[in-house]
Amino acid sequence: MSEAKRLHPAAILFNFLKVIREFLFAIILGFITFRNESFSYFILIASVLIILMISYSVASWYRYTYRIEEDELRIEYGILIRKKRFISINRIQSIDLTASVIHRFLKLVRVKIETAGSGLGSEASLTAVKLSEGEQLRSELKRERVSADQTEEVVENQAPVRKITFKRLFLSGTTSGSIGIIAAIFAFVFSEMEQFIPDNIYESTINWVIGLSIVILIVLGVLVLILLWVLGIAGTMIKYGNFTITKNEKELFITRGLLEKKQLTIPLSRIQAVGIEESLIRQPLGYVTVFAQIAGGSMRKGEEFPTVLFPILKKSEVEDFLQEFLPDYASQHDSMTLLPKRALKFYLFRPMLPVVFLLAGVWYFLPQFIWVPVAFLIGASILGYLRFKDAGYHLTGERLTISYRRVSKMTMLIYHRRIQSFEKKQHKLHLKQKLASMKLSIIAGLGGQHFPIKELEEKDVDLLSDWYSYRR
């Protein structure tokens, strides 16, 4: 691949759609502004802009070339100002192949190349190349001198592979808890669409809703919740459909997606910590999600962070999964050092305090709705107790296991060499109670990831501090 190559001509379409997406707000604003008297001027200006966008997309595609030469990926691009980017093969951390619906229809892929310092975006992104060329490019950049068919055969015969079943995928969707996110998106879209609805239709609809009985309103509310729940199931199944994880010698290889197929490469050396998430819905059922915190790479728009290693597993299956794919993180321990009982009042006080102020305000201004903050107060006290009950740690040699809860229960497995900082905090009440809080930090994402445990025994925090600093 030493000769310079251009992207597939379909890249013109993707460049055009990207430009349209960036100027979409301005286009909508112009349509709203000039839709009455000066609509013909809007059409004229929009036509000129579309012609310019198409010309820009074609020129960008023609001037974009890439090649591999002297252990470097060399990319040249730019219409008026010519830019050259040289990426050393030794600096490349991962090569991901993704394919949207259009990509898959045309048998193309998008190649995303990441280095340790990629930051907010990928180090390089080839928007449209043939599938065979994308696999060849990945093999060249990974210094693999075997054909794609041979690679797949070796992976299939020797490497550990685990796929998600349809039953588990459906269960993952039903317990994903994404109904709240979808409801928020639905409410935002509805609020934005309100200005396009004629006033007479909007007012008549509101009056019709107000005139309905309480029973009908409850039924409609239940139907909306069911619809949002079904949409959440569909979204999860589309996102994690055909989920497959494979372990090679030095990396994990993940393939997922029904509409947009994604192939993610995770070097084992970049894994900073492994986590087990138990949501409020899945925990009583005994199911968890296994994920990894990855150093470097890009915080890509639309990508979840951290990286999901398997969407849903039974808690009893996690040990075998880790033993198969990440044996260094296997051998979990259930015997955690928990918080002392005198820490419970702190955990109850924190979530209940803002609700108490809300309760006072509603009681004074809207006493007929006092039951709303009372329900929130009960929920806050339950959450505080769960946070107290689930917090703890276990120390084994060079590995630390910590457990805490925000809403979901998180269990993190972290090696000493991956911890970047250790922080101990105490205020006056802590000193009187001989308690202390700690916070661990690792390299992952923007600004790192932080894992706090509050109100531990002071001696336990000192023990962990000494362990981190190699003090005896």
TrEMBL record:
| Domain YdbS-like PH, chain residue ranges per copy | 61-140, 242-322
Q: Does the keyword Cell cycle apply?
A: no
Q: InterPro entries recorded for this chain? A: UCP026631, YdbS-like_PH
- Listed name of the protein: YdbS-like PH domain-containing protein
Q: Which organism is it from?
A: Virgibacillus indicus
Keywords attached to this Swiss-Prot or TrEMBL record, sorted alphabetically, are: Membrane, Transmembrane, Transmembrane helix
Q: Does the keyword Ribonucleoprotein apply?
A: no
User: Transmembrane stretches, by residue range?
Assistant: 12-33, 39-59, 169-190, 210-231, 346-364, 370-388
